Amino acid sequence: MRNWFGNDWNWIVAGLAAAIVVPLLSFFAGMPIWIAAIIGLLVFVGLIFALAPKRLFEGLDAKAIGKGRLEFARDLLSAAVPAAQRLEASAGQIASKDTAKRVRHLAEIAADVFAKVEANPESAGTVRRFLSYYLPRAAEVAEGFATIEAKRQPDAARLQEVALVLTKLEDAFVHYSDSLIEDRLDTLDTELRLIQASLKEDIGR
Known about the structure:
about 200 residues; mainly alpha; 7 helices; about 80% helix
């Protein structure tokens, strides 16, 4: 049930709030216990929904964007979320400061890509390979580095090899993040050409 209405956090907060409200209303406000319990239940249920994480693309007009495009973008991001979470978590498991910093940077870029696609679902196709391939592989490589590092006698050569792959993945992450901006710049260039053509036609310059 929690998977439908959020994560553990919103349930915990709602439960604590209800646990505080009921005795306050019953003992300090003098309400009958059954009325306090009903109010507590309403507070509990209300907070579950109020604090539930926002659904991807919530509030966007599906008709304006196209239901098919919106569902494609939503499915793509939803499938990539676990990999992004694993990548972020792995940074805290890595002892090497440089590698941990690089992995955190990868997680930040992934979050930036998510935000850009949420802002413009039509751009999802541009980063499809990033979300479905590079992001999960980056999580696996980062976790692999942490696993090798946890050995009593880590293989320095293997650690160096994995770190090198993470460096190359960082370049790929930056490339895909910037590609979303390039798509917008292409649209801007087209608009500029159209405006310049109209100005030349209307005012001769």
